[in-house]
Amino acid sequence: MRTEHVRQGVIAAAVALLGLLLAQGVWYEVSAHGTYVEGLSREPTIWANYTLDSQQENIGIEITNATPLIVYLNNRENIGETEEVNVTSTLDDTRDLVQKGVVLTVAFFALGSYRKWFSWLGFGLWGFTALLLIVMVPMSLFGGYSDDSGPEARGALETGDEVGEEQFAHSTFDSTLSLHSTGLNFGFDSSGYDLGLVNESQRDALRESPPSDGEEGSEAFIRFAGDVSISLGAGILSWLAVPLIPLIFHFLGRNNEENHEVSVVKSDDESE
Predict the structure, then answer these.
(1) What is the mean pLDDT of the chain?
(2) Domains: count for the chain
(3) Contacts for 65 with CB less than 8 Å, ≥ 6 apart
């Protein structure tokens, strides 16, 4: 019985260590780039690197061939009112649930030495916490930036403003999704006629039908394409390894018992 207490204590300590790695490590790493392939000269490209952990988000942005993009943003008129969505509080709430889930998981694994079903509760809490990390954290972070109309071509991408039918006419959006070893890749190709570049008197006509090449309003056509790579950080990968700890100790314990039985049988044979 004492051996079982020691084993469960070591398991709980190992789970606590992985929980500490989760708390101090990176949860998600996102790298993205998008290029204005049509509509702007010299194809301005926006590069972004984003990391998310248990306490903060860090983002770095670089723009190559920025001058045409700056001119474009200064010349366009922002049409309609944009609604700001505060996702910080939702993300903080999810972070708080993750922290509580980690603490309860460690506690239940520690109590597993007294009642076996506590260990099963520990697995359940681990699964709940993993679900929060894999599903709820990305939804809390990115979910506030989507609407029922779907993604549209963006005129002011770096501001995070939602752009819908009021901003663009005849917009299209194509995307691809693929998996890699620790995450996924998302490719996109959006286009449309930026109404912010067109005189107000011409906007209704542009909404009704797209202009032909050379016609008034055709210069407002914008195409923006790129890709986003999302990878699980070391913190989440550490937490996903939690179930391996009890399994390892289970197999080690079984091997020790088998070796002990073999040694007992040998000693009995020798005594005979």
Answers:
(1) 82
(2) 1
(3) 42, 43, 44, 45
